[in-house]
Amino acid sequence: MGKKLEELRRLFGVVIDIDSSAGVLEWDQQTYMPPGGAQGRAMQIATLSRLAHEHLVAEEMGAALEAAESEVKALDPNSDEVRLVRKARRDFDKARKVPSEWVAEFRRMTALAHPVWEKAREKADFAYFQGPLEQIVELRRDYVDFFAPYDHVYDPLLDDFEPGMKTADVKAVFDELRSEQVALVREIVDRGTPVDDSVVRQKFDEQRQWDFGVEVAKALGFDFQRGRQDRSVHPFTSGFGTGDVRITTRFDPTFLNTALFGTMHEAGHAMYEQGINREFDRTPLGTASSLAVHESQSRMWENLVGRSQAFWVAFYPRLQEVFADQLGSVNLDDFYRAINKVERSLIRVEADEATYNLHIMLRFELEIAMMEGTLDIADLPDAWNAKFEEFLGVVPPDDAQGVLQDIHWSGGMLGYFPTYALGNLVACQLWAKIAEDIPDLDRRIAKGEFEDLLGWLRENVHRHGSKFEPVELLTVVTGTGLTAQPYLRYLREKFGDIYNL
Amino acid sequence: MGKKLEELRRLFGVVIDIDSSAGVLEWDQQTYMPPGGAQGRAMQIATLSRLAHEHLVAEEMGAALEAAESEVKALDPNSDEVRLVRKARRDFDKARKVPSEWVAEFRRMTALAHPVWEKAREKADFAYFQGPLEQIVELRRDYVDFFAPYDHVYDPLLDDFEPGMKTADVKAVFDELRSEQVALVREIVDRGTPVDDSVVRQKFDEQRQWDFGVEVAKALGFDFQRGRQDRSVHPFTSGFGTGDVRITTRFDPTFLNTALFGTMHEAGHAMYEQGINREFDRTPLGTASSLAVHESQSRMWENLVGRSQAFWVAFYPRLQEVFADQLGSVNLDDFYRAINKVERSLIRVEADEATYNLHIMLRFELEIAMMEGTLDIADLPDAWNAKFEEFLGVVPPDDAQGVLQDIHWSGGMLGYFPTYALGNLVACQLWAKIAEDIPDLDRRIAKGEFEDLLGWLRENVHRHGSKFEPVELLTVVTGTGLTAQPYLRYLREKFGDIYNL
Questions:
Q1: Residues contacting A10, CB < 8 A, separation 6+
Q2: What is the CATH number of the domain that holds A116?
Q3: Which of A73, A290, B221, B275 could lock onto B458 through a cystine, CB 3.0 to 4.6 A?
Q4: Partner residue facing A35 (CB), from B37, B51, B225
Q5: Å from B16 to nearest chain A CA?
Q6: What ipTM was estimated for this complex?
Q7: Å from A37 to nearest chain B CA?
């Protein structure tokens, strides 16, 4: 490695140390921090964020970047070196548009908003959270202005999570999906053979749920030497380099799916980060390509693996052993149908695969309305409920099961939700390619063997970190850019079968 | 508050945010961090430490300090404002002598040394830890040089923990103590009625130990809304401002004292930090006056309260309820004698009050020898064992129960141990004054009432933070500087009674 690139890496290493330290503080905030820590934690996070930003946008960094750019000019454009410099340039240029003071204020505000959201959710009362959310949306509008001109006010937000993606692109994909997905759900409800999921809605001891989840996560390939699992209000994955990637889960004592599929979902995220080339630690390449790619990994392990018949051929006997009273006399086929029940449900993270994207689309539309200023925050609960009825045919009984269910807005993460739906598409697109490369994939999963699958993902996706932008990565791996077709095919096939359509 | 002081506070707030963030990272390192996180964590902590140091010694800080000094010149020398500026000056001047690079290297090295020490301890083999310790002592010698000239090579280390105290002062106090304490222990062993502690050496369920410890900590006044308890290899207290002060404990399934008195000890530390004036958060005054004062609080709650007969009048019935099989038929007096058994034991943190300071004195002498260069690190285990036999009449069977038992050296904390012995003295000196101010203290403790005691400590010690230096604080509160007499009187009285001397 050249001297100039070395210097760029050194400077970036400091930025990433600070950022990942703030990450640890945020993880702690959502897992173990006592209530009294909220104010101090907000200050710590704000200070670290400002410092990270100051170091990122420093003149010294700009100079190091230019020097590195000219040093690597003659190298292979696909080399790690060139890619590292390119990613550093993108991060630097974006950060330069934003004042450090905005970053500190945004982080301070969102750190303070988190416990308020938790309280509002606990009380099922949006009114508590309205003020903080108004401030957050206001700050997000200021943020967007730093990137003017733009095609759409939502574009700069989206680009933070999905490099290169435009609001118009998402709208186009969603328009294509919506009609198909609404039609599928209607068909299932109107014409399908009803599915009974009462077997997963019994009492399940929390410690046993925990133990079984850990057993599954280990079997999939989550490395507990380089990670751990804890409890939190909202499940999430948080990585501080490839050596320390943590997941959280939550439990519903009367619903098996919550923790079980939640753990597989987060393990999917975490295995992605654990699989990034270790050489990329403390460099701009040591992150996911995008959040849609990240979500493709979590959704793949949760759904394409975890909700498949093959997976339960391997794991159902063990689950029956753990919950003998509840599942001892339930056959595999009934269990498989139960965990795949399609319904017009309230909670996104527990939604079935057929309705999931509808939950996303309504959030996307609400976020756009908030950012465009056509929706007052005070009116958000009503708008949520109205759109919920329109998209899913049900109205949440309270705000906790409605507009307050997700953590994202309290963290200021507007622009994030669409990546969930895109992630489902990416997962299926990758899966089609994997099925070609590993012809007996189903048979292996049915034996509880995931090494080849994980190996494929490591080789083709994980290890690259953010060396490739998402569409570029998809094209390299599957031969085409983002397409919804594999996803729609998968849904029709799977649910056509379960519901005898 | 004046504008200049405001600016000084703002600048210091940033330093403290970074420092307390590093504190959270260190807490996490010792409680939840997976093994794979060690390298990354070392870099994070090193980076944060360097940044905190850079911000502390910045020209901007020096200018703000001078401006604030002239702004507060006319104010009462005992006002918070003047004291804040004085403490800031001390912190600034000391930090200016040390290069930021040394700080980063020291913190990186000690962060890496921690898991090595844990492993060495697990394997009971000092050889694993020898290399890191050599590097740490080397770094500490470099550190001391920054403060040359000094009377003694150990002085600059001691001054970090005990502002204003000299090695010669400690030697003088220890010389006075040693003969008296050795004589007392000999008298107990040679002439005393033997004490049987088998009742505390039975099997005690860990979860019940945990629950009882939490119950006691709450009763004493530890605020779980502004703190928490976790498990760690070595118990410690870590505060990140008055709103978030955490303790850890560890369990011995066959020895009740370990967790029980460990929890009271750490709760004592934590209540000190929880009791600091909240206005001092994020200022140089928001810390303890010194480590001896800190230790006086932990030892007071652990011993003067927790190992008193009065305390167990209140709590023994409850403990008997929790451990009915083990203690149901043991009377209070036998239990009281068991928890106060004097013995030539191996582990400092579990040592009785009569021998405790001997554990400290031997460490103090070894640290001085290491710093003076008269003891090779390779010879440390032998020197430890020889001195142990000399001071306590026993030889540790292995390094885990000997030279590797304490975390301090892996954290580079040389100069720290003497403060433990001094803390015992301070505790007794304060206690004598408390007994005057709260004449029915014993009766209150016997009813499980600690509000007045905690209130007295809050008012006279806690709230001041580091507004007063330790000897100054002692003088204000008790009328005299540090004296060993109340401590020696307390020991003779208590153990004379228990051992019928």
A1: none
A2: 1.20.58
A3: B275
A4: B225
A5: 8
A6: 0.94
A7: 5
Quick check: A39 and B243 CB within 8 A? yes
Is it the case that residue B264 has pLDDT exceeding 90? yes
Give domain status of residue A158, yes or no: no
Residues A11-33, mean pLDDT to the nearest whole number: 97
Residues of B annotated catalytic, as ranges: 266
**Is B224 within 8 Å of A24 when comparing Cβ atoms?**
no
Token pair in block for residue A87 = 């990613």
| A227/B38 CB distance under 8 A | no
Active site residue A59: no
**A342 and A271 in one domain?**
yes
Check whether residue B307 and residue B435 sit in a common domain: yes
Residue of A nearest to B11 (CA): A47
Using left for φ > 0, alpha for ψ between -120 and 50, and beta otherwise, residue A239 falls in: beta
Count CA within 13 A, CB hemisphere, residue B368.
15
The answer to whether B17 touches B282, Cβ cutoff 8 Å, is: yes
From A266, A273, A353, A367, active-site residue: A266
Whether B398 maps to a domain, the answer reads no
What's the pLDDT tens digit per position in B282-311? 999 999 999 999 999 999 999 999 999 999
A157 found inside a domain: no
CB burial class (10 A; 0-12, 13-18, 19+) of residue A321? exposed
User: Do residues A119 and A219 both lie within one domain?
Assistant: no
SS3 per residue for B34-85? CHHHHHHHHHHHHHHHHHHHHHHCCHHHHHHHHHHHHHHCCCCCCCHHHHHH
Domain boundary among B134, B159, B193: B134
Above 90 in pLDDT, residue B471?
yes
Instruction: Supply the CATH number for residue B216's domain.
Output: 1.10.1370.30
Nearest CA in chain B to A27: B28
User: pLDDT digits over B10-54, tens only?
Assistant: 999 999 999 999 999 999 999 999 999 999 999 999 999 999 999
Q: Which residues of B touch A (CB under 8 A)?
A: 13-14, 17-18, 20-22, 24-25, 28, 32-41, 43-44, 46-48, 51, 223-228, 230, 240-244, 246, 281-282
pLDDT of residue B18: 98
What pLDDT shows up at residue B393?
87
Of A20, A47, A228, the CB nearest to B44: A20
On whether residue A194 sits in a domain, the answer given is: yes
